[in-house]
Write a structure and sequence with these properties.
Elements (H helix, E strand, L loop, with lengths): L4 H6 L16 E3 L2 E3 L6 E7 L13 H8 L3 E7 L5 H10 L3 H4 L10 H7 L7 H7 L3 E6 L20 E5 L9 E6 L5 E4 L3 H18 L4 E6 L6 E4 L11 E4 L31 H4 L6 H34 L6 E7 L19 H4 L3 E4 L7 E8 L3 H9 L16 H10 L3 E6 L3 E2 L10 E2 L4 E7 L4 E7 L4 E5 L20 E2 L2 E2 H15 L5 H4 L1 H5 L8 H4 L5 H7 L21 H4 L3 E3 L4 E3 L1
Parallel strand pairs: 3-9, 3-12, 4-14, 5-6, 5-9
Antiparallel strand pairs: 1-2, 4-13, 6-7, 7-8, 10-11, 12-13, 15-18, 16-17, 18-19, 19-20, 21-22, 23-24
Helix pairs in contact: 2-9, 7-9
């Protein structure tokens, strides 16, 4: 919010038109102090497992009213790992999972202990925000394997105030455990976790507005994640690690949406199998199975109503305190979700669009209202974006880049911004509905994947640890049902007007860079392949003069074996050791 000196003078602060407002000048308003330093506040709402493609946002009227209609919806926002803990670590560090080495929900490859062991508890966003002069608050779920036994070993760094959900009770809607600041954990048997989260959110907001410093408040509900009782939070994940059931809504919402069903898209419980690896072996779901999954879907929508109310509560309190117009509200989820697509039971962990393309809305100063943009953004972009919004310096080692939030910035990005998303995954995939066929956990779900979204193309390419490949043209196959690299394809098939193998070779080369990239290379991977800068988009790379480079000379992605975590000697050739750089003129060509 921009206030003129005349406005402050009229309030009796004694400023003339030439004076600048200093931090010592503050306006008392009912319920708190209006921050006048000019630096914006940020409220970040991070849901758990919320979909974009199953229409959950359509059932959230306050999100529609306060965020989508009063802000910008980033329609092509992606999680780079479709699993909560590694995705959250990437979000808070601005780094890909292969650079954080937090790739799972439990040790040895993930969870809070892995986050600590990698030195990240001393080097992530809340610490940088505090260094920039911000108070930081957090309530809700932080990471998996952050437990009632290890919450103090060590305490999470970087927060002025915190009240964390702790395992093994994180996903028990009516039996949660919260741990405030450095106090002992408190069990809340019989109380709904969303009601608790709402109270804690409003308490922290009241604390924040009483301080002179600007603030960053994170609200991280467990909804709409399934209700889970864990038997273990460490070791190898197997079929008996937990009991899953549909999320539990607040009592006042449990009767809603009785006619809602999972959208019956082309890829919902298809007649023919799709995908590769274990996905292709899934049986078609029975009517009883589909009916239960519709019930599961309705309870997800119902569970989100409590979060929708928190959005309204936050907006009304920011307005009451006089700081709504000087506060960014950012809303997203850690990953997406599927229910029935490709015959999958409720869950995530796949590279399909339902799992990786997720909500992102931003409202705040100079953010266009009621706008939807197709620029490509990812969770690795959020940490640099938050620092940019508050005017703090960016870090040279970020794997993501700032998301534009102004009208001019979005317009420029629609022409100049990169068009790729690197996706990666290690280990398992879990079904979270009923155990219909006796198999809940699918192992060897390790893959590298790539999304490329340009003016005339919309592609998904992946390489699995069992050596299978996928390529989908989402312009013509939005449900990702027809793998162009399957054995059934025609040898003469074309894509984008080129022989299919030529396009696949370019995608493999691009993903070869991204699967082990660091820093700017993750943002500008084509420059690693073409340092002269003459290739910036997939369309540029399809020039015939690059055929031999991509189709013959360049190393291909391959795994030496399937692993449950990021183990470098299983990852195959690495670009920094085995990749080639293209240099060419009319008299010579040189690959180095």
């Amino acid at each position: 919010m921009v206030w003129s000196s005349l406005f402050w003078a009229n309030l009796g602060l004694g400023l003339n038109s030439q004076q600048k407002l200093t931090p010592e000048h503050k306006l008392q308003v009912p319920g708190g102090t209006l921050h006048t330093s000019g630096r914006p506040n940020i409220v970040f709402i991070l849901t758990d497992d919320q979909d974009l493609h199953l229409n959950s946002l359509d059932y959230m009227p306050f999100v529609q009213k306060h965020l989508i209609q009063r802000g910008t919806l980033y329609k092509q926002h992606y999680a780079t790992v479709a699993l909560c803990c590694p995705s959250r670590v990437s979000l808070w560090t601005g780094k890909t999972a292969h650079n954080t080495n937090v790739t799972d929900v439990f040790p040895p490859y993930g969870g809070y202990p892995k986050f600590v062991s990698q030195g990240l508890n001393d080097n992530f966003l809340p610490i940088w925000l505090q260094d920039a002069g911000y108070n930081t608050y957090y309530t809700g779920k932080l990471f998996n394997a952050h437990t009632v036994d290890n919450y103090h070993s060590p305490f999470v760094n970087g927060f002025t105030g915190s009240d964390f959900l702790l395992d093994p009770y994180t996903y028990q809607y009516l039996n949660s455990t919260y741990q405030r600041n450095k106090d002992a954990p408190v069990r809340h048997e019989g109380e709904h976790t969303t009601e608790l989260l709402a109270r804690k959110t409003y308490d922290f907001l009241n604390d924040a507005v009483k301080e002179e410093r600007p603030f960053f408040l994170t609200v991280a509900p467990v909804a709409p994640h399934s209700n889970v009782k864990f038997r273990s939070t460490e070791g190898i994940i197997d079929d008996n690690v937990a009991e899953f059931s549909p999320p539990i809504p607040l009592g006042r919402h449990e009767h809603l949406f009785n006619d809602a069903k999972v959208p019956r898209t082309e890829n919902f419980n298809p007649k023919e199998p799709s995908g590769v690896n274990w996905v292709r072996g899934l049986a078609r779901q029975s009517k009883e199975n589909v009916d239960f999954n519709d019930h599961f879907y309705r309870n997800r929508l119902r569970a989100l109503q409590g979060i929708d109310e928190i959005v309204d509560g936050v907006v009304s309190r920011l307005r009451k305190h006089g700081i709504l117009d000087n506060t960014y509200i950012v809303y997203s989820s850690d990953n997406g979700y599927h229910i029935g697509q490709h015959r999958l039971q409720p869950g995530k962990e796949c590279g399909f669009e339902e799992d990786i393309n997720i909500p992102l809305m931003i409202r705040g100063p100079n953010v266009p209202e009621n706008v939807t943009t197709d620029i490509v953004t990812t969770h690795t972009d959020l940490a640099p974006t938050f620092l940019q919004l508050i005017g703090a310096p960016l870090r040279a080692d970020f794997d993501g880049e700032v998301i534009p939030t102004s009208e001019s910035g979005i317009a420029k990005a629609s022409v100049k911004r990169h068009e790729h998303v690197n996706v990666e995954y290690w280990g398992f995939a879990a079904g979270e509905g009923k155990d219909w066929d006796g198999v809940r956990i699918h192992h060897n779900n390790t893959y590298k994947a790539l999304r490329v979204i340009g003016d005339s193309y919309n592609l998904y390419y992946s390489v699995w640890c069992n050596k299978e490949h996928e390529l989908y043209d989402l312009n013509n196959d939005p449900g990702q049902l027809r793998n162009l690299l399957s054995n059934k394809r025609s040898p003469s098939q074309t894509l984008l007007g080129f022989p299919l193998h030529k396009v696949a070779a370019r995608l493999d080369g691009l993903l070869f860079v991204l699967k082990s990239c660091k820093g700017r290379t993750c943002i500008e991977p084509w420059r690693a392949l073409h340092p002269d800068g003459n290739v910036e988009k997939l369309r540029d790379a399809l020039s015939a003069r690059f055929d031999e480079f991509y189709e013959v000379q360049q190393k291909k992605i391959e795994y030496s074996r399937c692993e449950d975590g990021y183990i470098i000697d299983a990852e195959g050739p690495q670009f920094e050791n085995d990749g080639l750089v293209y240099r060419y003129n009319s008299h010579w060509s040189d690959w180095v």
